[in-house]
Amino acid sequence: MLARGMSAQFSAADLHLRFGGVVALAGVSIDVERGEIFAIIGPNGAGKTSLLNAVSGLYRPQRGRITLEGRDITGLAPYRVAKLGVARSFQNIELFAGMSVLDNLMLGRHVHMRGGVLDGAVYWGRARAEEVRNREVVEDIIDFLEIEHIRKHVVGTLPYGLQKRVELGRALAVEPRLLLLDEPMAGMNLEEKEDMARFVLDINEERGVTVVLIEHDMGVVMDISSHVAVLDFGKKIAQGTPDEVRADPNVIKAYLGEESEAIRAAERAIAAEPVA
Amino acid sequence: MSSAIAWRRECGTFHTTYAADMALRPTPLARARIAIVIFAALAFGALAGRYELSIANQVGIAAVGALGLNVLVGFTGQISVAQGAFLGVGAYTSAYLTTRIGVPFWVALPAAGLVTAAVGGIFGIPSLRLKGLYLVIATLAAQVVIEWFMIHLVPVTGGSQGIFGIPAPALGPLVFDTERAYYFLTLAAVALAVLGCANLFRSRAGRAFIAIRDQDVAASVVGVDVFRYKITAFMVSSFIVGAAGALQAHHDLIVSPENFNLAVSIEYLGMVIIGGLGTVSGSLYGAAFIRLLPIALATVARSVPGIALNVNVLKEAAFGVAIIGFLILEPRGIAKVWRDIKDYFRLWPFKY
Question: A131, B202: Cβ pair inside 8 Å?
Fold first, then answer.
């Protein structure tokens, strides 16, 4: 476990986050290796999204340290975290609803562009070339996500599944080194889930992006992630490979509740009884 | 045949480069339409009478001011009721520089923009913490404070009398002291402001403004420094509004505080709402609507005997009715109505 921590690309150590009397995170630590798909699971209210928000700089943890490639990013403003190569999606899609798909993705290019107000107003020479160059990058992503047909649609009018995909595209446009996905498959049907899982795998394998993923669909988590951390009431209760986590008694207890132990004991007692 | 369709129809046009696809007017029809508008505007300047041109000047100046306000309210989502005050800052700056210091108009105009941008930037600082109605109250404070200075900083502003004897702009032997000459100046200013804004909102900085309006949290996680861009939006908006104020000063040749009060702020908000929030063209439509409405009413009133005395009351009422009407029937304004008309004809005469 120590060796894991030493080589981690991204880690959070002993994060404490509270809102008034509500404790969202009570000493959570995770280490994510370069190039892996790391899943965070746990019951509702376990602190999964709070953890991602703390990493993005949207929440400022009261205690603890977040490091990215050896650099302390705890408490950095969100836009600075983005500049360092961290992109994310949100649980309840947070797109720029009044803008086209293209413009949403172009905003993902914001950190890779330099044009200011004057460059924009003149829109000539360098500024224009920059727009066209980044449009090419965005078109590659549109191609990859198979959303060519909606590139000029206003995102607010698109169906849910496509919006999820556009949001993933915007995160990709940032060219992140670390991609945080908050329930990318929530509310999708089986086919859409499979598409999304394929995209996440491709992003991870072909583009070499480290992915941290919150997901409730255990099938997906077990299939695509190389490492899983389980949160419950703001604490990490288990960590390991999908198989290790699945067999962990703490995890079973968190998901199925205390009484399951009692039920199982009762079942054992019944099984042990000789059949009359 | 196919090229004939491509000439007229958006759906028959295929671009082969991204640059062509990203053009402001991507189809020949759109370009032809703009050429006609420009030609008509120039012809109007050459042929129209003095009265019509004076109305056109008022519309043009209001259009620049409304465009500036729309940058802030419509595109960036930061509601401001300090529009009147910011117009005033531009007008007074230009008036002071030209009458007291003798700076030529061509220097005073951008200077007015810059001074207003600085003032707007300072009063934009509360937008870091305040949103919606709370920001409205903060900008109301800006309006009140600046109005107080206009009235009480007598050595600079001339107090409640204002500044008069403002020189008309001159370019060598050419003096813009007639409505006709000034019309071409206004037209150039409108064209510059429209082109600048249209370009701004298809490029990086302008997109960041719109992103802040639509979803400021998401904007910050894709790398937009929200606070910096909000202040920038206040400054860009104020620059344009300040320039509009200067244009107004050199057109009226006098500035006084009552031309820049809270009622003016509300009137300009009415323009951007009726024209279309977050649209460049809507700023022009809204300015024209609000400026022409009382004139149209007066014309109608003159032809109906008996109500001529109540025209002023009627104007106020019509302003209110127009805003309420648009909010109920077409909240996205005249720009949306025009878009719908164009959309209808895109496939015409086919159903789909």
Answer: yes
Choice between A178 and A254, residue whose per-residue pLDDT is larger: A178
Mean pLDDT, chain B, integer: 91
* In a domain? residue B290: no
pLDDT digits (tens, 9 = 90+) for A49-85: 999 999 999 999 999 999 999 999 999 999 999 999 9
- What the block records as the tokens of B331 is 């909240």
In a domain, B284, yes or no: no
Do A127 and B207 contact (CB within 8 A), yes or no?
no
Calculate helix-pair angle for B132-152, B262-275, nearest 10 degrees: 140
Considering only CB atoms, B22 lies closest to which of A99, A117, A132, namely: A132
For the sheet containing A227-232, what is the strand order?
Answer: A86-88, A178-182, A210-214, A37-41, A227-232, A235-240
Sign (positive or negative) of CA dihedral B246, B252, B256, B260: negative
d(CA B180, CA B174): 12
Number of domains chain B contains: 1
Give the residue-averaged pLDDT of A139-161: 94
Q: Which domain holds residue B50?
A: 20-263
Given an 8 Å threshold on Cβ–Cβ distance, is A79 in contact with B197? no
CA of B83: how far to CAs of A173, B10, B149, B170, in Å? Answer: 37, 38, 15, 28
Half-sphere exposure of B199 (CA within 13 A, CB side): 19
Q: What is the DSSP string of A31-55?
A: EE-TT-EEEEE-STTSSHHHHHHHH
ipTM above 0.85, yes or no: yes
Does some domain include residue B177?
Answer: yes
pLDDT tens for residues B279-294?
999 999 999 999 999 8
Mean pLDDT in consecutive groups of 10 residues from the start of chain B, 352 residues:
46 78 84 93 95 96 98 96 97 96 95 98 92 93 96 92 93 92 97 96 96 95 95 98 98 95 96 95 96 88 70 80 92 92 79 66
Substitution target in B27, B199, B207 with the highest count of A β-carbons within 10 Å is B207
Q: With respect to residue B6, please indicate whether it lies within any of the assigned structural domains.
A: no
Domain A1-75+178-187+208-276 homologous superfamily, CATH? P-loop containing nucleotide triphosphate hydrolases (3.40.50.300)
Please state the domain extents for chain A.
1-75+178-187+208-276
Contacts of A195 (CB under 8 A, 6+ apart): A165
